[in-house]
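REQUEST FORM: STRUCTURE PREDICTION
Request ID: SP-0412
Submitted by: Lab K.M.
Chain count: 1
Length (residues): 185
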Amino acid sequence: MFKELLKETRDHMQKTLEIYEGHLATLRTGRANPALLENLKVDYYGTPMPLNQIASITAPDARTLVIQPWDQNALPLIEKAIRDSDLGLNPNNQGEVIFVNIPVLTSERRKEIIKAAHNYAEEARIAVRNIRRDALHRIKKIADEEHVSEDEVKRIEEQVQELTDEFIEKINEILAAKEEDITSE
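STATUS: Completed
RESULT:
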């Protein structure tokens, strides 16, 4: 019963970590990364669609993204969505594809991106702590229903805390690496 609870807790924390990494991938560093635009919403025939569902996004070099829509009528819609986004990018429509040059980051923009990364990290830490809280609540509930010894409950609670510490440490390591990536450009 507690093994299953620990496994579920680890799985939930791992999913939180993956979501956090996905959020960080959307933050612009000085290098071209297709993840930067993948989830950008394009108003495609009246329906907001993620860009990666209506076009392919590639990075032929470190400073350029190339967007090739599957429907050529989507070119102006994609171009508008990129211009309207808060990414500070200027798309260049070439008729069949859109080129997006990734400019070098200013120190002010770097600070904004680092701040956003810290906000994502804090959201992830909060999510991990909420998962811990829920797990501890379930442990107490199981202990009451099945008359589990206090020592056993304490041992399981310590394992949940160790999991929490492990995932918060991973979040901090990923944040430090992202900060290094942003400032090193």
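NOTES: The longest strand covers residues 55-61.
Reviewed by: T.R.
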